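User: Show me sequence and structure for the first protein, then do the same for the second.

Assistant: Starting with the first protein.
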Amino acid sequence: MLRVAAEFFELPAEEKMKLYSDDPAKTMRLSTSFNVKKEKVHNWRDYLRLHCHPLPKYAPQWPSNPPETVSNYCQEIRELGFRLEDLISESLGLEKSYIRKVLGDHQQGQHMAVNFYPPCPQPELTYGLPSHTDPNALTILLQDQLVAGLQVLNDGRWVAVNPHPGALVVNVGDQIQALSNGRYMSVWHRAITNTKTARLSVSSFLCPEDDALISPAPELTRGDDGSLVAIYRGFTYAEYYKKFWSRNLDQEHCLELFKNTIE
């Protein structure tokens, strides 16, 4: 998968630019930074964004270098994501399939971002991606095996997540935080740049169906005194995703906008 990613970004600029778009609604596009229409400081990143489910619908739109490798990777990642969702449900004391059913079961959306971070002459002025959480349910990351760049926030400190051969990094996203009523927290993370070496990564996102209604599981909203305490109001994933993409990436946590008002 990383070899295919490298081959794509080695294509001539004029060929790649045929795919360029800054419209987040497009299901296949090459873009840069995060939201170039709103940012004051751009991020040092180019990325190819692909929708991945259902494969027969979207794979014919992809660049052909070669689609079989990417299709196989998408299918394996999807099955891994479902297993993780089931384990998270069980860890919360919920029915095994609870999270999958809320997110849309096998109709869940799936996207991929193939990220390219070129060498940056002044890395102190920007990031590959600034600190943020992901708006989806789960992110499964394949890191560059030679060059580190991912950092996660842990107890107020930024900690490097160094690559390990054969390992994937799993980040909990905003939708799992909402469904678990804050028992699971979406992961604050960022990508740093360096002056000498380019870096690749592949981020796979499992997302609810657009009309999936996201709200804390009722079993997780009971307070110690028997009262019901739901931190977040109900919302559709389409509503959340639209709000997320209308903002700068480094603003306050988007979930803050969906908290219940406490009288």
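Switching to the second protein now.
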Amino acid sequence: MTSNAGVGIEGIGYSLGALTVTNAQLQAENPHWDMSKTIERTGVSSRPIAAEGETALDLAVQASADVFRRLDIDAADVDALIFCTQTPDHVLPPNSVLLHGRLGMLPSVMAFDITHACSGFVYALGIARSLVISGTARRVLVVTADTYSRLVHPLDRSIRPLFGDGAAATVVAAQQPKLRVIDASFGTSGKNAERFIVKNGGARHGATGSGALVEPDRSGRIYSDDHIRMDGIGLLSFFNNAVPTAVRDMLGKHALAVSDISLFVFHQASRLALDGISRALQIPEQKMVVDMEDTGNLVSASIPVVLAKLIDKGIVAEGQTIVLCGFGVGLSWATVLIQV
């Protein structure tokens, strides 16, 4: 068994969809859309989109190669693999075993999927940390990858401008990690699951094949049960309460105040969502990381991609204390306290 004193993130790599779709392109494609306030509400001006035939698994292979290169390790140095995605290549087998094969990993590697989307990185980080602490694994590869562009109806003006496609690969270990995980907490509100849902494609409501009925809501936004249905106002209302409470609880548990934290890295849901959380917690602007203008909401890859960028830019420095918090589908949320 390993002491939890030194378990954390050893390194992060990432990969983004091969194509770029700008707000100007969306406006030209949909002349009746008013894109003038998109950047203000979403914080997004362009987003990476997977090319035709490019899947979350393909992006995961590229992200894994990136983190292996950064750490000068290879697949043989990993003995557990967690793959978080809601856009797998197949109903079965899971993406984790497909990635295991693509990377040529050892037969002794534990590999499994989770499907927590926007909270998925923090959930998977907590699971990976537990595997290392228990001695079940020495080094865990956490892969978070989604191609939500496949789940968004092309005429849904409320969320098509928001999401991008991408993957991150994070190595969790006890070997002098760059970012040590001090503590983690988790939350779930299953009774609110329908606030963010794709109804068709599972065992209860199979895929329609020819396409589900397309219907506008009261504001004229287009939905179908084959695509994401999002209650944006309901989600904002819920998470504006749940997320600040979770962060306050974590800080209180460790006798910390907002002033003691160097950086807050939340799931990059939207500018509107992050502004609400920032106001609730009274986080100074310089401590609140907002980085989605050119990536959009990357779902499960959101937080690790931002972290990788901060590390590359030298913004993450030794001695800092950082809060990470993911929230979304489920509804679910998770928070970790990090020491650099």
